[in-house]
Every structure is written in C-alpha cells, then in structure tokens.
Specification:
- By secondary structure, the chain is an alpha+beta fold.
- The chain has 14 helices and 17 strands.
- It folds into 5 domains: 7-157, PAS domain (Beta-Lactamase, 2-Layer Sandwich); 204-252; 254-346, Beta-Lactamase; 354-423, Helix Hairpins, CATH 1.10.287; 430-580, 2-Layer Sandwich (Heat Shock Protein 90).
- The protein is rod-shaped and about 205 Å long.
Length: 583
C-alpha cells in the first residue's frame, strides 16, 4: 500500500524553495540597485568635475598647450582623467596621455551623445591605459570636455558589498530555513495529532485527548473529529451491547447456529453447534466450513445450499465416540445478502426415545403375547376334552396359573416403573433416615432359599455397621432383591454372591457382586433399558419380565442417586447403587 510522503515533507521543500527564490531575488536586486546607485553617483561626480573643468577652461587661453596643461594640473588635483576634444573629434589635451598619440574620438559613445545632448556617458575598456573607465562628456561651446575615472575602486567596493550582502543573505536563508522548520512543525503537529487520533479511532479507542490548533481549518477539522469520535463511541457501545445480547442469545440456545458467506467462510458459530459437530477449535470464525466440518452429508448439504440458494431441510448423522448424534438441519439463504444460515436441532434423544417406545411396545406385546398364547392354547385343550382327564386338567391348570402369575408380575413391574418415573420427576417421595444393614439383611434373607437350591452362599460385608442414609427402605430392599436374584440366576453352582456397603467418593454405595459368566462390554450401556436382554434365549428360560434392572435404575433415581455396572467376561459382574451420603 502506497502511503505517500508525510505532510512536513510536502510543506518544508516548498518553504525552502520559496526562501531560496526570495533570497536570490533579493541578492540580485540589491546588487543591481547598488551597481546603479554607484554608477549614478560616480556619473554625477564626473559630471560635476567636467563642468568645473569647463569653467576653468573658459578662463584660459584655448591653445593646445594651455588646454593640455590645464588637463594635467586638474587631473592630478582631482585624481580624474580629463580629455578635451574639439567638434571634429581631435584630442586637444589629456591628463594621462600625449594628445598627439591619441586617435580621433568622434566615434566614442559619450562624445556622440554629448554632441546630441547636454552631456553623454559610457563605461568601457580603455586600450590606451588598459583599464575599464567611466566616461562623462560635456559639450561647452566649440569643445567637449570629458572626465573619466577607473572603476577599480568601484569594483573593490562592489566586491566588498557583495561579500557583505552574500553573508547577510546566507544568514537570512539559514534563519528562514529555521523559521520554515518551526512553521512546518507548527502546521504538521495538529495534523499528526489528528492522524494519531484517527488511528486510535480505528482501533476502537475513543477517549484519547485531542490537541487544539489555532489554525481555523485544522480547529474545525478537530471539532469534526471530536464529534465523530463521540458518535462512533456511542455507536460502538450500542453495537457492543447488541453483540453481547446476540452472544448471550446464541450461547443460551440449545439449537446449533452456523452462518457463512458465499465463499463458505464462517462468520457466526455458537457453542451448541460446536458441541453438536464435535469441533475442538474454540473460535471457528473465519474458517472454511468445508475444512472445519469433515462430515460428508453436511458438506453435501452446504454445497447444494450455495449452488441452488433454496431452503433445505434434512437429517444427518454425526459420528461420536459413543452413539452417533442425529441432527435435524434447516438451511436457508439470508435475505438481501449472499450469506447462508444453518440451524441444527439435536434430535438424538428424541430418536432414542422413539426407538425405546418402539422397542417397549414390541417387547410388551411379546411379553404379553407369550403367556396369553400359552393360556389360550391350554384353555382350548381343556375345552376340547382334556378337562375330563383329571391328571391332564390339573397339569394344564398349573401351567395356566404360572402364566397368569407371570402376567401379573409383568403388570406389577410396569406399574412400579410408571410410579417411580412419576416420583422421580416430581420428587414427591417420603424418605427417612434408616440404617442400611437391616435393609440388606432382609433382602439377603428373602433370596437365600433360591440361592441354597444352587448351593450359592450370600455374604454381607461392611466397614461400618452404623451406615445409614435418607432412603425409602422398601424401595432399596426391592432394588437389592432384583440385583441378588439376577446374581443367583446367572451364577454357577457352588459360587458366592457378595453384598457390600461402604462410603466411596462422598456416596453411600451398596454393591452386589457375583462370579457368573460376566457381560460383554458392548451390552453394558443398554443394560438398564426395559426388556433389554443380553442372551434372550437364556433369559426367557430363566423367567423374569426383563424389567428388574430398569426398576433398580429408577429406584436409584428417586433417591437422587445412580446405578453402575462393572463386568469382566468369565469372572463375574458387580452392580453398585450410589446414594447421597448424609452430611
């Protein structure tokens, strides 16, 4: 970028040139005036001497000898060369030379002028005496008297004058240069100040002091700059407030917002969008959107939006470390500009809920259909005549009774989950400070008969028998029953199930560990979903509704706690309920 030259480099050379021209003009003018003055003065002196000589000549006999003697005598007295010439130009007498040796002077300029006027003058080099002289000739009667002096003295005086004049001019020139520097500084300082103020304004600094100038135009410009500064400060503060509001709105939005120009450079990007698209860069503004977001469906949508300029609604999947994130994208071009806006809604949870609802409906239908089909089949068999056979009738009725119990347990579990969900949402649950050991021992006792059938020992371990918590004892007991019952179901004969209570990381924890086959890692995230089974065939053969762990999760939830699982295939599993510790 060509910034040009500073103001003082434009102004100072102009002052220097002006000063040089003025001093040169003054030097030439004074020299010429001095020369004219000296020549006029010398001419007047020579004219006076010539007239004095003419007066003396009028009182003298005009013989050539007398004339020549008079010229010699007066020339010595006045230091002036006198020459007397007749009308024909013949030299009658001369104070410096022999008249007989001198040429005819009728062609001399001063002689010619004296014949025509009262007197004549000229300056020229004299070959007879080898000097430059000033001549003044006066016509008197029949002769012309000429006086002359060499200009050697004049040249010496002129030289001295020129030396003095030159020194004065040089000093004047230096003084003028210094004054030019001062004036340049005085002129450029307020302009430099305005430049610095403008620079500060461009950087958003509006409170810098402004130096006032006595120059009307610069003072007016300073006033305009001051007014502009105040106006810009107000607008900047207004824009800053608007930006803060916009930043607050965008930061508080759960929707992801991205705006970019026609060159696909991002100029608006909120935190929600950065989290949805797993972008690590904290400030993506100015980045190319295709380089910033490495997702093929997203890039294809951006390309289509830029090329067509039409609104686009689509759903894309963004891979994450866990399950993919599902985004609902609404894309459009902004009015009156070639900019584009993308608003994204994270519908991952909604999709998951839809899947859960679909799975729940399918699982409930399956769980209900199986016992109902069995009941219907055996009832039809009884109706067809089996009721007449006491043994078959008794066998079939026992099966129908077990299936009815299974249906009843399924309904009870579903109602339990519904009740727990409501209590978890509203917090409408009455808890009490209760000792934990009695709750655990009651749950162990209720499960011991089932454990003895597989020769399984149930052990209880604790570091502090006095542990207590704010709980609903019946719910904690139900959760432990479910966990211990599962541990017994999936453990081998002759193994151990351990129940342990302790304080860990500011939580009261109740753990149930078994030595069963373990659970593969891929199943752990979904283990507490309703009706989710790791091995569906084995689970069905063991009975149960598939809602036990879901009930445990909700029981922990209503206590403001959680449940976790750790499992190693071939070594067993540990389920832990985490409850808030009493302060």
């Amino acid at each position: 970028m060509n910034r040009g030259k500073p103001f003082y480099l434009h102004l100072f050379p102009a002052f220097v040139l002006m000063t040089l021209l003025v001093t040169t003009f003054l030097s030439v003018s004074t020299t010429r005036l001095y020369r004219k003055f000296y020549e006029k003065q010398t001419q007047q002196e020579l004219l006076t001497k010539a007239r004095m000589f003419a007066v003396s000549l009028a009182n003298t006999d005009r013989t050539p000898k007398m004339v020549d003697d008079l010229a010699n005598r007066m020339g010595k007295q006045t230091g002036t060369r006198f020459t007397v010439i007749d009308r024909a130009g013949v030299v009658l007498g001369d104070s410096d030379e022999d008249p007989a040796r001198l040429d005819n002077h009728s062609d001399r300029p001063e002689i010619i002028e004296a014949r025509q006027k009262e007197f004549g003058s000229s300056i020229r080099y004299s070959e007879s005496i080898n000097q430059t002289l000033m001549y003044v000739a006066v016509s008197i009667d029949s002769v012309i008297v000429r006086s002359a002096i060499p200009l050697t003295l004049y040249d010496q005086q002129l030289k001295e004058f020129l030396q003095g004049n030159t020194l004065a001019i040089v000093l004047g020139f230096i003084t003028a240069l210094l004054l030019s520097l001062i004036l340049t500084w005085l002129f450029s300082r307020p302009i430099e100040d305005l430049k610095q103020r403008a620079k500060l304004l461009s950087e958003g600094k509006f409170t810098a002091p402004l130096i006032r100038s006595s120059i009307t135009e610069i003072a007016a410009l300073s006033d305009i700059m001051e007014y502009s500064s105040e106006t810009l400060a107000k607008r900047f503060r207004s824009i800053s407030r608007q930006k803060e509001r916009l930043r607050g709105v965008l930061g508080g939005m759960v929707e992801g917002v991205i705006a970019f120009d026609q060159d696909e450079k991002v100029f608006l990007f909120n935190d929600a969008a950065r989290k949805m698209l797993s972008i690590e860069k904290e400030n993506p503004k100015g980045s190319q959107i295709q380089e910033l977001i490495r997702n093929v469906p997203f890039q294809q949508t951006v390309t289509e939006l830029v090329e067509t300029g039409e609104d686009i609604h689509t759903i894309i999947s963004v891979p994450t470390d866990n399950d993919p994130r599902i985004l609902n994208m609404n894309c459009r071009i902004l009015e009156n500009s070639r900019s584009f806006l993308i608003v994204m809604h994270d519908i991952t949870d909604l999709k998951r809920l839809e899947n859960l609802r679909r799975d729940f409906a399918g699982n409930v239908s399956h769980e209900l259909r199986t016992p109902l089909t069995s009941i219907k089949g055996f009832v039809e068999t009884l109706v067809d005549g089996a009721i007449n056979d006491p043994d078959d009738a008794n066998h079939f009725l026992c099966i129908i009774n077990r299936q009815v119990d299974r249906l009843n347990q399924l309904i009870e579990d579903l109602l339990t989950i519904a009740r727990l969900e409501k209590e978890e949402e509203t917090g409408a649950i009455d808890m009490e400070c209760s000792a934990i050991r009695p709750i655990c021992e009651t749950a162990i006792t209720s499960c011991r008969s089932r454990a003895e059938k597989k020769d399984i020992k149930i052990l209880y371990r604790t570091d502090d028998d006095s542990l207590s918590g704010m709980v609903v004892p019946s719910l904690i007991e139900q959760a432990l029953n479910n966990l211990i019952d599962n541990a017994i179901k999936y453990s081998n004969f002759g193994t151990v199930v351990a129940v342990e209570t302790k304080i860990a990381d500011s939580f009261l924890t109740i753990s149930v560990s078994d030595e069963g086959p373990g659970i593969p890692r891929m199943h752990l995230p979904r283990l507490f979903e309703r009706f989710y089974r790791v091995d569906k065939a084995r689970s069905s053969s063991m009975g149960g509704t598939g809602l036990g762990l879901a009930i445990v999760k909700h029981i922990a939830g209503v206590h403001n706690g959680s449940v976790t699982v750790e499992s190693v295939v071939g070594k067993g599993s540990t389920f832990t309920i985490h409850l808030p510790k009493i302060s």
